[in-house]
Structures are given as structure tokens and as C-alpha cells.
């Protein structure tokens, strides 16, 4: 009996000493408030924007392909089938990002210029947009649900150091101590076919 009690005490102490296994990122999204998913827009073949680019005219932009539209629908399905509580959806005003956000069908889409692509922007513009995005994430940090942002690879690299593929999401949490973000995980891009 004494040996059994000793074994139970040792097991109980060991349970506290062993760190918990990392939870599935979808569990984290379901159960933690203040998180955000920063998505790169779905597949839009090419790179950058044409010389005659006009943010108000989709005909002058690189747009989603048919495969990209299918991918955007699947991006939303990834969240809906896992019951991820989406608190809001904010998109870059670029057509490929806005269309991705709308096709995801996870919430009403708001556009914000702060999420506009910085791929061909001066450093000063890129830094200003990054600060504005961090401010948005800071405001969401104490709120319930997941904030979904849909934007561009260059912006996500600046914010997280990660270069996502088309349709990939990076799960982040605002870190008040550093004034930056902590990357918690990545949501794989759904297939395009």
C-alpha cells in the first residue's frame, strides 16, 4: 500500500513537470479570444500589379483565377466546419483580397487601406501600414472570437517573418510586451483543384 501511494505521488508530480502537448491550432482558435488569422489572398497568378494598376478598377489588377475562387471557398469551409468563432473580417481593398474574403463567407467584409499591398511601396508606406495593422491587432487582443485579415504576402512577411503561399493563414496573437505579434501556427492553403 505504501508503494502504491508513493507511485501515485510520483505520477502526480510528474504530471506537473511535463509540459502540456501543443494543442491543435484549430482548438486554439476555437478556445482563445483575441487571436487573428492573417491570410494571403487565394491564388491570383503572377506577381505584383501591372503598371496601370488602379485600386478602384479590378480590370487593372491581378485577380483570382477560377482555381483561386475555389480555393477561397475552401478557406472559409476550413473555418466553418471547425466551428471557428469569427469576430470580424477585414480585407485589403485590392480585388483579389476582397474577393477572397467575400468568397470565404465567414462574416461581413470590411475593407481597410492599411492592409493594401506593400510589395511595390516605399519603405515608409510599408512601415506605416505595419504599425496600423499592429494597432488593429492590439485593439482585438482582449476581444472574443477570431479576427480574419485577408491581405498580401509582402505585408505578412513584414508582420510575421513568414512568406505564406496563396490561401495560407498565419495565426497570431498581439504581444503587448514587444508591441509585435506572436506566431501561434499556420493554416495550410486548401487545394486549388
Describe the secondary structure blueprint for this structure.
Blueprint: H1 2-17, H2 25-31, E1 35-40, H3 66-80, E2 86-91, H4 95-104, E3 109-111, H5 123-140, E4 146-151, H6 153-160, E5 169-175, E6 180-187
Helix pairs in contact: 3-4
Global structural class: alpha/beta
The H-level CATH homologous superfamily, spelled out, is Phosphoglycerate mutase-like
The helix tally amounts to: 6
Euclidean distance between termini CA atoms = 62 Å
- CATH top level class name: Alpha Beta
The total count of strands amounts to 6
Helix content: 25-40%
The residue ranges in which pLDDT falls below 50 over 5 or more consecutive positions are 1-23
Shape: globular
Structure description:
The protein is globular, with a radius of gyration of 20 Å. Helices cover 38% and strands 19% of the residues. Helix 4 links the parallel strand 2 and strand 3. The chain is of the alpha/beta class and 193 residues long. The chain has one domain: Phosphoglycerate mutase-like (Rossmann fold), CATH 3.40.50.1240. Helix 3 crosses helix 4. The protein starts with a helix and ends in a 6-residue tail after the last strand. It has 6 helices and 6 strands, in the order H-H-E-H-E-H-E-H-E-H-E-E. Strands 3-2-4-1-5-6 form a 6-stranded mixed β-sheet.
Question: Briefly, what is this?
Answer:
The chain is an alpha/beta fold. The protein has helices at 2-17, 25-31, 66-80, 95-104, 123-140, 153-160; strands spanning 35-40, 86-91, 109-111, 146-151, 169-175, 180-187.
What would the keywords be for this entry?
single chain, 193 residues, alpha/beta, Rossmann fold, 6-stranded mixed beta sheet, 6 helices, 6 strands, 19% strand, globular, disordered N terminus
